[in-house]
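User: Hi! I'm a student and our assignment asks us to look at how structure tokens line up with a sequence. Could you show me two examples?

Assistant: Happy to help. In each example below, the sequence comes first and the structure tokens follow. Example one:
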Amino acid sequence: MGARAGPLTVLPLHAAGLDGVPGASVLDKGMSSYAPTVQAVVPAQRSLVVGVTVAQGLAPLPAAAAAAHDVARALVAARRPGPTVLVDEQATRAEVLAGLTGTGLVHFACHTATEQNPADSRLVLFDGPLRVREIAALHLHDAKLAYLSACTTAFGGTELVD
């Protein structure tokens, strides 16, 4: 059985330390690892880029469509297979679910909603919510990386913290 973090996952441990004591913080004692490029993380595979600027009942995200197109251009410049880009009225539940199949990398620029039970959390698409449980039911064997460019994506529930 692997190590479990449990409730510690909701704490900002990367910022822990003794205030005012040089060399006494996590950042002084550890080194984070970052990937320099998408190519270093994900081999050349199909990609899906989704951007939703307007979702019913929510504040507009005026930069979401532009962000989606910028990500698509960056993927093409990085010599990735041409991404599928779904923006605004194209970014429906059915189109996103279909686009996820066989996709290794996906980028979402849209509203999200985080729930106590993470399986009930959702992406807010043009025609309504797409819940985590619906995505998990797809068994996406080619999935390598999903990037969420959305508010509150770092907030998780405490019901399933492990």
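Example two works the same way, sequence first and then tokens:
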Amino acid sequence: MPYDFEHGSGTEADPYLIATEADLWGIFDVNSDDQPNFVGNYFRQTADITITQSVSTNILIRCVYDGNNHRISGLKTSLASLGTSTWKNSIFLNCTNEDLESWEYPTVFQWIFLEEEGVGENKLDNIQLLNSPGIYIFAGQNIVATNLIVKNSGGFAGGTILDSKISECYGENLAFTQQSRCSGAGAFCDVFGCSFENIVIRNVEYEDEYWLAGGMVGKTSYSNFKNCVVLGAKVIGEDSSGGFAGQIFGGTFEDCFALGVTVEVRPGLPNQPETWPTWHSGGFAGEIFANRSVGDPDYVPFVFRRCIVHGTADVDATAGGFAGAIWQEGGSFFEQCGAEVSVINTNENAGGFAGEIWGSLDSLEEGAVCKDCYALGDSVLSNLENAISNGGFVGVADKVIFERCFSKGLVSGGTNKGGFCGLGYDDIECIDCYYDSETSGQSDTSMGTPKTTAEMKTQSTFS
């Protein structure tokens, strides 16, 4: 027999009323065939609820739950999986998710999906997650999430999210340490084909002991970000890390900022194979690709417009003020982007904007990779023993055009040093690009034009 609610009939006009812990668990009742008893019903919470036990919940199918701005405190396991459902107006406090299985995510909503592919949608609206260290709100796909607030907890999406729209969210005092090679660490861990708009997170600390870490997102593939800001972040990765994102595969980033960030990479995992690739780290992103990873579309370019990063990158990795390494293909570019990041590197290549930029065969026909961009960090320093190429703007570049870009950081260490570019391979063009010859300590003229500090501050210097 299904749970007998004391009040309501489960319709939109007369929802089942949830006033006790028993009522809450009752909505997940299943029949003898282990199928949900409540499908397509409406629920409304009428009192604060304190959880006293761990219960294995089922799936909520095509239902609407209105928390009515009441609290659910002390949740000990993931609350539910949602299938084409809406959950709104809830406040979750002091969640713990005890004894997670290896396949589980540390989330309030374990997995959200469409019961019938292409039919309906899932909605999360006006949900708060408070004082729940290491816990996130959700993982899943086809989600429209708005007005989410997370404080003193893990973050927003603790696993993979796909084809979702996230907007109007705020996070504060977020922290999580990922201890398995799962989905990276960040306020959103691993995203595919999603859009993000008007999101602010502040005072975050993310570490991944095996893979990627970013302040906003661990790994993002062909997703779009607009008006998203990280204010104050400490990010530590074992592979790649960035103040905004650990690893980026295509997508657009407009008016996004990572301010007051500290980025580190700590390679040297006990199980790391000898053929493990070079590590990368940057103030904004560790690695940026204009190609695909496993399961992605064949090709999605990256586009960055008006994105800024301030902070420090002190790493044992190829490092850059904006990005550690960039792989560019046709249609991908940076426009009006800047890095004010002090780069301290103990690995191979470093640059005030990027450690490495590798263009495609046709990139010169596509135009400049970096247009109207700057690197204003105080230094680009490298360990003298391991350093190869350092530059005020970029350490190593190949098949790339730079247009109207400039840098000023002190460049030291490395076999190859340049005020603007440390080492250029084939087809490098620097059009109206400049660097400060006094603050950089360099005077080369092959890539970028040296100017004194006074000249760099004089408008007539620049055509």
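Here is something you could point out in your write-up. Confidence is low (pLDDT under 50) at residues 269-277.
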